[in-house]
Design brief:
Blueprint (H helix, E strand, L loop, with lengths): L8 H6 L5 H6 L16 E6 L4 H16 L2 E8 L11 H19 L5 E7 L8 H11 L5 E5 L6 H13 L3 E4 L3 H4 L13 E4 L2 H12 L2 H4 L12 H4 L6 E6 L4
Parallel strand pairs: 1-2, 1-4, 2-3, 4-5
Antiparallel strand pairs: 5-7, 6-7
Helix pairs in contact: 3-8, 4-8, 5-6
């Protein structure tokens, strides 16, 4: 997880956020219809930064890997902006790529193909056409595309989501930062379209193990500095289900 919010969204992302306890008390989440993904034979999972795909759709990836579905991960950036001022950016890039590889193993998805585009972390907002062109080729032949939600209030996530909307035939958005800044029943969130993918206990455990692989994001970036992914934020992704928003094409 890296990059920046945009405009007034920075206040929402930097704010205290909505606790996982509050989300769990809201019956609206469990009212979403259940989506059976085991029939999918192939899927592309798009990530703006290393860890996005695991946080938002790691459970789906694990379920699909167990069924033998063909998986492709499109890594749009290498997450090099997660630690501003890092003395060795190349080393950070290597570390984040290794963490993703470990996470895929934890999910049981070692056969997933990873394609790194190497676009600039925190610089995707101005690259819509370039990202869309890349996706059009890379999603060809796949049944489903999963991507960060285009209204996540995070500039990189939104750029990737917009491109996925244009390129994918059957696309689902996975929210990430939304769980932090939104509130239950918030009208800005398309709850009426939401679907829920139930994660069996073993899958939920594999997802949590995969999240723990992103050590660079879970530990303080510097003495006295908070981690990129604080514990309270991570709890949003330790549920026994994942929420997706199907893309409604006009």
């Amino acid at each position: 997880m890296t990059g920046t919010a945009h405009g007034g969204a920075a206040n929402l992302i930097d704010g205290p956020g909505t606790s996982e306890t509050r989300w769990r008390r809201w019956p609206g989440l469990l009212a979403s219809p259940v989506l059976n993904v085991t029939r999918w034979v192939s899927a592309v999972i798009v990530a703006a930064h290393p860890d996005d795909e695991v946080l938002g759709a790691g459970g789906v990836m694990s379920v699909l890997a167990a069924t033998g579905a063909r998986l492709r991960v499109i890594a749009v950036t290498d997450g090099e902006a997660s630690h501003p001022g890092h003395r060795d950016t190349a080393e950070l890039v290597r570390r984040r790529a290794q963490e993703r590889a470990e996470a895929l193993r934890a999910l049981g998805a070692t056969d997933a193909e990873v394609i790194r585009l190497g676009l600039p972390d925190s610089g995707l907002a101005a690259l819509d056409s370039q990202i869309t062109a890349a996706f059009e080729d890379l999603v060809t032949g796949f049944e489903v595309c999963l991507a960060p939600w285009e209204s996540d209030l995070h500039a990189d996530h939104e750029a990737v989501g917009r491109a996925a909307r244009q390129a994918g035939k059957q696309t689902f958005f996975y929210p990430v930062w939304m769980w932090h800044w939104a509130r239950p029943a918030a009208p800005s969130v398309p709850w009426g379209q939401a679907v829920r993918v139930v994660l069996p206990p073993a899958v939920a455990a594999r997802k949590q193990a995969a999240i723990r692989c992103f050590r660079s994001q879970l530990k303080p970036r510097a003495p006295g500095a908070p981690p990129v992914l604080p514990p309270g934020f991570v709890t949003h992704f330790c549920r026994d289900y994942e929420v997706l928003f199907p893309v409604v094409r006009l």
